[in-house]
Amino acid sequence: MRMTVIGTGYLGATHAACMAELSHEVLGVDVDEAKIASLKDSKVPFFEPGLPEVLERNLENGRLNFTTDYAEAAAFAQVHFLGVGTPQQKGTYAADLTYVRQVVEDLVPLLEGEHIIFGKSTVPVGTAEQLQELADSLVKPGSHVEIAWNPEFLREGYAVKDTITPDRIVVGVREGATAEAIAREVYATAIAADTPFLVTDLATAELVKVSANAFLATKISFINAVAEICEQTGADVVALADAIGHDDRIGRKFLGAGLGFGGGCLPKDIRAFMARAGELGADQALTFLREVDSINMRRRDRVVQLAKEMCGGSLLGKRVTVLGAAFKPNSDDVRDSPALSVAGSLSLQGAAVSVYDPEAMDNARRVFPTLSYASSTKEALIDAHLVVLATEWQEFRDLDPEVAGGVVEKRAIIDGRNVLDVAKWKAAGWEMEALGRNL
Ligand SMILES: NC(=O)c1ccc[n+]([C@@H]2O[C@H](COP(=O)([O-])OP(=O)(O)OC[C@H]3O[C@@H](n4cnc5c(N)ncnc54)[C@H](O)[C@@H]3O)[C@@H](O)[C@H]2O)c1
């Protein structure tokens, strides 16, 4: 099948390349000329394991191409995926739908004949209906554009696997729409492998995505709230999470107490969900998400507070190493990153902060140019008075406390992700703190 993918960021570039991998003919479209030039040149402009190989293979076999030209996109295919950003609006909690609307405004007047736009961006419930009205008002006489919603559940770091073998496919359609049949063709490989294929109305499909993210955020903040109680009582949140996680109604995943969630999705998605509930006159339904957000943000403050205590009450003049800048391992995404937020706060309180991340250095430098960036873990650790493990990259999990201890000024560490072997680090003479534990 021929298709375009409009917006070639983390979601769109992955979707475009993976659809070509599944034998479709794909044209990726973006307004960012540098991004398109990079993708055409077989360079993924962000870190995503496995994606460079898929991109290169499909550029070479001719199934994949990229453009900034909407006219080319309009002529190329009758099926279009929309994956542009829906960031938080400045000054409010609501999602900014400017980019999503812009795509419809720029694409639809160029379309001839029957077209389907599958929205993949995460949007407030009701957006697809509004976009359908917008498309109806812009489409050429005699042509027709159908809007369907096909939310994306990929995880950065596992995006290729999640796109090629998703755990479920959700398609929201209007009554009598042709989108379901088209989606079945697009996802034929996954459907043949018994992947659950769920067809809903538009509103349900939009809500599935934000509800999933709200649930995940709530689960993380739940354990982090319990961590606060553990800190007050001498209990251990890691042992507690193991114990409750054995209950298969609860499950151990997403019960990792620590610095909490960040990134380009969960924080803005729960806020947009609350904002939308307010617009719908149902704000009470989601006020608990405000608390989920606050618990999450408090963990960042807690790490800064612990750092201060471990530095004798003041961070002034202390050298602090922050290991990690990405919002999670296996990604270079620093959007709303807890690690960078902590690094920034430590710096603002007078510490000399040295940051190292295996993949996110360039992005981190752009967001926080005032921090200093080391070129390796070892360089970052030199002469540190305190180390903060803020993103749980394998490289940091594997750190040898003796080797690290030989480089720092003082053996003191905060395990912000509860991933280090406490006994081993303590045996090597490290003073250690972690979230939700009394070490
Ligand atoms: N990143 C993820 O893991 C993920 C997962 C699921 C859902 N989502 C959702 O997918 C959407 C995109 O997220 P992302 O992380 O890929 O964002 P991103 O910022 O990496 O990519 C968005 C892209 O859209 C492009 N764009 C903006 N306006 C455009 C226009 N008018 N025409 C063409 N391109 C345009 C931008 O240049 C950019 O390349 C968001 O709604 C997000 O919530 C993201």
UniProtKB/TrEMBL annotation:
Residues 321-422 form the UDP-glucose/GDP-mannose dehydrogenase C-terminal domain. Its EC number is 1.1.1.22. Pfam families: UDPG_MGDP_dh, UDPG_MGDP_dh_C, UDPG_MGDP_dh_N. InterPro entries: 6-PGluconate_DH-like_C_sf (IPR008927), NAD(P)-bd_dom_sf (IPR036291), UDP-Glc/GDP-Man (IPR017476), UDP-Glc/GDP-Man_DH_C (IPR014027), UDP-Glc/GDP-Man_DH_C_sf (IPR036220), UDP-Glc/GDP-Man_DH_dimer (IPR014026), UDP-Glc/GDP-Man_DH_N (IPR001732), UDPglc_DH_bac (IPR028357). Pathway: Nucleotide-sugar biosynthesis; UDP-alpha-D-glucuronate biosynthesis; UDP-alpha-D-glucuronate from UDP-alpha-D-glucose: step 1/1. Keywords: NAD, Oxidoreductase. This is UDP-glucose 6-dehydrogenase. One of its GO terms (biological process) is polysaccharide biosynthetic process. The active site is at 265 (nucleophile). Belongs to the UDP-glucose/GDP-mannose dehydrogenase family. SMART domains: UDPG_MGDP_dh_C. Substrate binds at residues 153-156, 209, 254-258, 262, 328. It comes from Corynebacterium glutamicum (strain ATCC 13032 / DSM 20300 / JCM 1318 / BCRC 11384 / CCUG 27702 / LMG 3730 / NBRC 12168 / NCIMB 10025 / NRRL B-2784 / 534). NAD(+) binds at residues 30, 35, 86, 122, 156, 268, 335.
